[in-house]
Design brief:
Length: 121
């Protein structure tokens, strides 16, 4: 699988983790040292990947089980060697987010190392 497709697959796992409220998929998509950071309600929110995975897993019923339509749009992907930056728009918890995902290629697999999020609406 080429890098572009491998990155797209990691982004899909990331989105599916939230859509399905699947803690294990969060851990699959993110590097263990990852940080999730952004502003929520005007307040800076910083989470470890473990905290984010627990939060995602606690959202029950899942968006899929509530019958919500999935919403994921990849806006851009910029690959430089074994690093990449992807910008995606996704729907989660009734909000629209713009996520900037810094990614690393480790042992031929792409993982998210940092996520910066912005609430668009």
């Amino acid at each position: 699988m080429d890098d572009q497709h491998a990155i797209a697959a990691t982004i899909q796992i990331y989105f599916d983790s939230m859509y399905l409220s699947d803690r294990d998929r969060v851990l699959q998509a993110f590097h263990p040292s990852a940080k999730i950071t952004g502003y929520m309600g005007g307040n800076l929110l910083e989470q470890t990947v473990e905290e984010f995975a627990n939060f995602v897993g606690a959202q029950t019923p899942s968006a899929k089980d509530r019958g919500e339509a999935p919403m994921l749009e990849t806006l851009s992907v910029d690959i430089t060697g074994d690093t990449a930056v992807a910008k995606v728009r996704d729907g989660y918890l009734g909000m629209i987010f713009i996520d900037t995902l810094s990614m690393l290629k480790i042992d031929e697999s792409w993982v998210i190392y940092n996520k910066l999020f912005h609430v668009e609406g």
